[in-house]
Design goal:
heterodimer; A: 131 residues; alpha/beta; Hypothetical Protein Ychn, Chain: A; five-stranded parallel sheet; 4 helices; 25% helix; globular; B: 102 residues; 22% strand
Chain lengths: 131, 102
Amino acid sequence: MAEPWEDDEVEGPVFKFLYVNRKAPYGTIYALESLEVVLIAAAFEQDVSLAFVDDGVYQIKKGQDTAGIGMKNFSPTYRALEGYDVEKLYVEKEALEERGLTTDDLIVPVEVVSRAEMADLMDEQDVILSF
Amino acid sequence: MAQLHTVNKSPFERNAFVSCLEHAKEGSGILLFEDGVYAAMNGTAVADKVKAALSGRSLYVLGPDVKARGLSEDNVIDGVKVVDYEGFVDLVTEYDKVQSWL
């Protein structure tokens, strides 16, 4: 007989989780820590979205090469999120523009939303985790 | 007494860079490194401030930090000089003192 934890029929509630990323990579540990938590949480099959706001958009900038600073380049991991069913990535339009960036500069496909739409997205969530 | 100012914070997250510019006298040098390198790029909301600062001051940006962040040295604002770690050390010795804007 299958143990309860092996039973596919056992399903908990599904919550809407939003991870808000507002920090540039490498200068602080926030971006890497956020990515670690997203990957762990992906195992719990929740409804996950990622938001990239302010300097957070720099996390998914194409062409990162950290050989010269002796740190791990974790940007390829954002491309693996799809494999964990983390597919809803939102980037704030104003954040891109202030930094002279476009979606062509990003390593993953994203949905670009306005600041007002981002506010609505935040409002829809059950749980928000900020980094 | 020519000073070298160093800035390692993003200009979009803190006011360290703008405050540095407002205090840096003519003849001083400003070195951007770590998240400070974002200020050195063309097309950003602070690019005009950088261009204005170039008159009378020398601006430098640390190349390895530019590359790490996926930025191109070709996209650094004209007049801002790209240096490596050895260049960083040279700057520290060339100026009379160093002030860090954290």
